[in-house]
Amino acid sequence: MEKPKPVHPDFFSLLILKDQNIIELFCDLRAFLLEIHPESNELLYHTHALTTAFSISEKLGDAYCMIPIYTNHLNLGFTKGTLLDDPQHLLVGTGNLIRHIPVKTPSDYRNDEVIQLIKASVEFAVKNMEKPTKSVGKTISKIKKA
Q: Is the predicted pLDDT of residue 5 greater than 90, yes or no?
């Protein structure tokens, strides 16, 4: 297994303010997602949550999953979760599109059911992409510096 690219400095400067457990979970989950789809572009945001979205293009609309980090927890989010087949009923939430898996330990995502859900989400994003992308494996920071 190849070591994932480093976390972008804009994101890292905010990540280090979180509890060590949250930082470790984020880093492991990020590495896990990049193992499954290394061509992902990472789109970085800091709004109500510190979030990295994994997209098949440079657009948030083409994202297939995300990791929002809140004060005391993080989730594995699926941007079009309501449109995915979820036979194991792993996804929770009440929004029109987004669903998530609450993450407390690596066993919450390091399993075959979640791997299949991530792969299905990537396939769905590829099928529904409006136009081909030139960006592959890039990190794009949308974080406004203070």
A: no
Q: Give the DSSP per-residue string, 90-136.
A: --B--SSS-EEEEESSGGGTSSHHHHHHHHHHHHHHHHH-SS--S--
3-state SS class at 7 = coil
SS3 at position 28? helix
Residue 144: predicted pLDDT: 79
Q: For the segment 11-30, what is each residue's pLDDT rounded down to a tens digit? A: 999 999 999 999 999 999 99
Residue type, 35: E
pTM of the predicted model over 0.85? yes
Residues in the chain: 146
CA distances (Å), 2 to each of 27, 41, 58, in order? 14, 17, 23
What DSSP designation does 47 have?
S
Q: Read off the DSSP letter of residue 73.
A: -
Domain ranges of the chain: 9-128
| Cα→Cα distances 25→87, 88, 96, 129, Å | 25, 23, 27, 30
Residue 128: left if φ>0, alpha if ψ -120 to 50, beta else—which one? alpha
